[in-house]
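In this supplementary section we document a worked example of the pipeline. Step one takes a protein sequence of length 202 as its only input; no multiple sequence alignment statistics are reported here. Step two produces a three-dimensional model, which step three serialises into structure tokens for compact storage. The input and output of this example are shown verbatim.
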Amino acid sequence: GAAPILQLKNSKINNGTIDNSGLLEATLGSNTIHAAGITNHTGATLESTGSSTTLQIDNTTGFTNTGTLLATGDSHLILDTDTLTNSSGTVQVDRTDATHKSTLELKTTTINNGSVINHGLLEATSGVASTIQNVANAADAATEQFSNDGTIEVVGNDTSLTLDTDILNNSGGAVTVDAKTAGTGAAPILQLKNSKINNGTI
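The serialised model returned by step three reads:
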């Protein structure tokens, strides 16, 4: 049989702790996990799925992933004011076809270590700073993957995304930094620190 499932439909979980060793999925409507301590264990999946589905995980008090954190089925997964310890875990964004893709949106969020695999849209937004660090660098290349055959985008005035000590395999992918729009604030920024982007388009 399949692993136990907790399914969210237009639901919100506030505070406390979430310990997932099976499947925790948002499947319909707008869903939020707010100010909780989250552990997603090896072999477990925490996901948003479905074209009408949004899952926002915000202001976590602790967030550890050694399993899979997944945006799939044309859904929208938002990490807002989180620090994700992703050591030995995978963050993945899927694409159904050329016109249907899932989105991972970062707002004031750091993803540290592990693998990040983007087939859809991975975007930094909202005029705040986010970071992806220590992913697939020389020390971890044998066990981690940072790949993009979708789009990584920095959107909105004052938004910044920092790649810190990463090696990004951008084969078949695009990295896009949008132009400044009307109004206050500086143009979006993609900042590289001890990082490398291989192939693809920028």
